[in-house]
Amino acid sequence: MLKRLLYLLLVMPMACVDPYEVKVPEGEQLLTVEGIISTGPGPHAITLTRSATYGSIFEGLIRPVSLATVVVRDNEGNVTFLTEGTEAKGTYFTPANFRAEVGKSYTLQILTAEGNVYTSTPERVAAAPNIQSLEVRTVTIQVEGSTFPKSGVQLIVELKDPADQNNFYYWRNGPAVYILETSPELYTPRPSPQNPNRTPQPKDCCSICFRYEAGNNQSLFVVNDDNFNGLSTRIPASFIQDDGFRFVNKFRMDLKQYSISQEAYRFLRLVKQQAEISGSIFDPPPATIRGNMISLNNPDEVVLGYFMAGGETSKRIYIDKNDLTFRQVKAIVPDDCRVVSGAFIDPPADWRP
Amino acid sequence: MKKLILVVYFLLGWGTAWAQTPTVTREVIGRDIGQLKGIKLSGRITDEITGEALVGATVAIPELNLTRITDANGSFELELSRAEYTLEFRYVGYETKIYPITAVGDGRITIKMLQEDFNLDDVVIYGSDPEKNIRSTNMGAVTLSMNTMKELPPFMGEIDIVRSLATLPGVSQVGEASSGLNVRGGGVDQNLIQFAGAPIYNPSHMFGLFTAFNPDMVNDVTLYKAVVPSRFGGRSSAILDILPKAGSVDKFGGDVMLSNFSGKISLNGPLVKNKVSLLGGFRISYINWLLQSLQNTTLNSSDANFYDGNLVISAPLSEKNEFTYSYYTSYDDFAFASDTTISWQNNAHSLQWKSKWSDKLSMETSGFYSLYTYGIFNQSGINNFEINSHIADMGGKTFFTYSLGTGQNLTLGADYKQVSIQPGELVPTGTEAELLPKKVQDETGRELAAHFQHELEIGEKIGLTYGLRYDYYQYLGARTVRNYQENKPISDGSAVGETRYANNEVIQNYDGLAPRASLRYSFSKASSVKLGYNKMYQFIHLISNTATIAPSDVWKLSDGFLKPQIADQFSLGYYNNFKGNIFETSVEVYYKDLQNVVEYKDGANLILQNHIETELIPAQGKSYGAELYIKKNLGTLTGWISYTYSRAFRRVITPFEEENINSGSWYPSNFDKPHDLTLIGNYKVSTNTSISATFAYSTGRPITFPDAKFDYSGNNLAYFKDRNQQRLPDFHRLDFSVNFKLNGQGKFFEGDWTFSVLNVYGRKNPFSIFFDDAPQQPPQAFRLALLGIPLPSLSYAISF
Lengths: 353, 800
Known about the structure:
The complex is a heterodimer of chains A (353) and B (800).
Chain A: H1 4-11, E1 16-19, E2 31-38, E3 45-50, E4 63-64, E5 69-74, E6 79-84, E7 91-93, E8 105-111, E9 117-120, E10 123-124, E11 131-141, E12 150-160, E13 168-181, E14 208-213, E15 221-224, E16 232-241, E17 250-259, H2 262-275, E18 293-295, E19 304-320, E20 343-344
Parallel strand pairs in A: 2-19
Antiparallel strand pairs in A: 2-3, 3-4, 3-7, 5-6, 5-8, 6-7, 8-9, 8-10, 9-18, 11-12, 12-16, 13-14, 13-15, 13-17, 14-20, 17-19
Chain B: E1 8-9, E2 27-29, E3 39-47, E4 58-61, E5 66-69, E6 75-80, E7 83-90, E8 97-103, E9 107-113, H1 132-135, E10 141-145, H2 146-150, H3 161-165, E11 171-172, E12 182-183, E13 191-195, E14 198-199, E15 204-205, E16 210-211, E17 218-224, E18 238-244, E19 253-259, E20 262-272, E21 276-285, H4 287-292, H5 297-300, E22 303-315, E23 321-336, E24 340-356, E25 361-378, E26 385-405, E27 408-428, E28 438-439, E29 443-458, E30 462-476, E31 479-484, E32 495-501, E33 506-524, E34 527-538, E35 540-543, E36 554-557, E37 565-578, E38 583-600, E39 616-632, E40 637-651, E41 667-668, E42 675-686, E43 689-698, E44 702-703, E45 708-712, E46 715-719, E47 726-727, E48 731-742, E49 750-758, E50 766-772, E51 780-785, E52 791-799
Parallel strand pairs in B: 2-8, 3-9, 13-18
Antiparallel strand pairs in B: 1-9, 3-6, 4-5, 4-7, 7-8, 10-17, 11-12, 13-14, 15-16, 17-18, 19-20, 19-52, 20-21, 21-22, 22-23, 23-24, 24-25, 25-26, 26-27, 27-28, 27-29, 29-30, 30-33, 31-32, 33-34, 34-37, 35-36, 37-38, 38-39, 39-40, 40-41, 40-42, 42-43, 43-48, 44-47, 45-46, 48-49, 49-52, 50-51
């Protein structure tokens, strides 16, 4: 919130932000681990990548780490193997029936194709309280240099925090489905020798589809219960951006609530802090984000990321367009809705708005 | 600008009053009884307007090649032979007076000097007497008078004290909008800023865009950066002593000024004629009105207010006793799109009593109370809350100065201060109980000090000042203190039990001896070399993980975990004046060692933190540098060049490898800027027009570039390995101003137009460089320039 002074300075108008060319020494390609296994339904995914170097412009890609052997071991010695996705390279999935158990500790072990061995420190699973209700709130965000604000939906979780323990909450947007409206009657093929004069060729079908989305989690929502231990409280837990499609009719999403460890909370807080850096005068100095992975071959090797294990509860919400007090202008797709990726004509079996 | 009226009263030996004269003629002093030698001429120099004694003014007799300096009472004494002399009275910022006399017998004169009028062709810039830099044994003490600061290009229409000081060698700022000063490699919290003797914790408006002291209310500012007189202590780097003006004891007057961003008014005059004067001033910004008039809804629902006010009651009751009461307040609030407001306020009262008990013994006693409150107010509709914090300082000091003879002075005194801090209290303000109120434990500390200082001159060439300060500090209950396992890093995980301390029970004591010494050897009247040593203790720490003073910061007293900061400084300087003090030059080198500086663990959580010791690590610091200074004091062109080469480092070594920063090696501190050059020139085009320019260059400050880029939860993140290994591009900027004075002679008002341009050639000096991997665009480095364009401002001031 302090960095908002910056925006004021930007319009006064004194301050400015512009691209800048810097020379950064080539960094190492460090193994990065991301993923959470939880008490929720599987499969749970762990993603392995290698870091890239920062530079003035695009220098190097974050690449997936393929063909590794990845296992999760609990404190009773049970080992679960994860298998790499055939389409999602570098992402390793637990069997669909795998669920973490409250009270157990889990470690992640990795053997890379090069033969290096990595392990996490143990993560203990704590129970997550239920989400009692979800409230929808419309938020608008002014965009510098544009008269049209960005907007979206903020979900506010109501929960009853257990008084007898220190809890650390982490929310993620789960899979979503929404009604996609398109305009097949406006279909106009690209100008071509066959159709030089751009005559519309209306299609008969279809203007209404159901579009599936994986959860988008650009914004991180983490909190500890220091300020509400033992209380019923409401906390902003999710942001879903209005892209001109999602809130045209009905939108459904599962919000996942995790109870994570104190160390995982600290890690996510650092991630969040860094993701919000704007270069302003109130930015904290850069902090080294240390994770919980260690190399067994070379103790000095830095491994990035964090392996988490936690309790999970989730709640489903249907959001109607009328729940929003401000919406983006409806985006127009002049085509059959079925051509849009992830869109299908039949509603999901459990679609009960 | 006060109208120049020249009044000189000669109270002759037999009591004849001598009236004012426009043309100065040679006067006969004393009753002629045929005395040839040993004629005693004594006198006192005071300010025409305020009646205040001018301390350290020069009385020179060129015929005898003799110079005397007025004492703490503004008095001087001369022993003359029966002859004709030309008396010259000089005081910086005042009209020089030349008075030819014929001395025939003992006599006493009273000289009233007027503040210099800008109609003069020559400008004299600071230093309370032209040879003081050479002759005094003091090291690294710089006094800037308001008149000197007026010669610098103003910042957004205003004279800015902090920015003016940053033009001096060894003094810098982190960036273009930062609060506070970095003096010789020290942090902003290592300077004690006091206004009329009361400590001020946040010296800025709008997060450092403006300095929170109204320049019209300030008489002068003294910065002690090397050897600090032993009557000052409590901070480890420097002392910034700001003294308010006094109102006139015989007539009413005032000033009004308007600029693009703020307006101010001041009034002064006698409450009791010739006895008690009053000075009041108020300054307010109208940035808020500008915001309200904007079309953009985000901005016209934003708020940015500030004001400051002063009240000074000064009572020079007699030549022996003088009382001064000063009240200072400053207020700021800032809200963006009206859901969160940040505000802070300073309040400072002080009362000072100066008394001259005899010709040799004088006393100064003062008491102060200052309260700094700050808060964050959230009215977003969810979990409404406010977080309030404050720091209250109450104390007093007294010291005696005893003159042992020529050039010999003894100062003896004691200080007492009680500091109480409320580090933060969260108060839920919503209708439903969704948040727990939370209060971080209050802190109380007590600082006591006793000090003495002896100044002496050994012959003509050698001067020595030595002193000792004994600091005693107590950290007091009521408080619950956590205990931690030994041989483990202090963290929530290693906590074992708590100890409860009762109200006013001593939790922790620290004490220390802080010697100060400086030695001067004069080669001639115009050159000298000085050597100094200084030790200081600091019992309060600014816990901040940003580069500026912000309301989210926490001030923390030393406790069992956080030891007092200790600074040791050695300095050596060579001073030389040329051409009858027209040019002043100096070279100073220093080495400073700092212990127990505060550093933070990675990603430390500082707000509402009841166990802040778990987030902090002690660091060592060292800094060294060489400062070169050339100044032209007189003429149509005046100004100075200051160049500093300096380094400032930090090191964190703990018994626990994981807590070390940069593997325990020395790394540059946030304000390590090796090369720092300032050029300042003021050119008097005509009697009422002057132009001034400032050019500043410095090495870019250290920053941390990421070592690698990785992805977590859809966020592109940076992995930082070592702190402060890269640098921002070099900083340079040119500022320019034109000042035009309307002649007020014979009229009611005198006007003063100032047009200035900051950053003339629009240099985009980066405040920071950061990396942003926003979706739909290549990841890129960006620079943030706070002052990216030439910024003009216009102000108009009138005096009446």
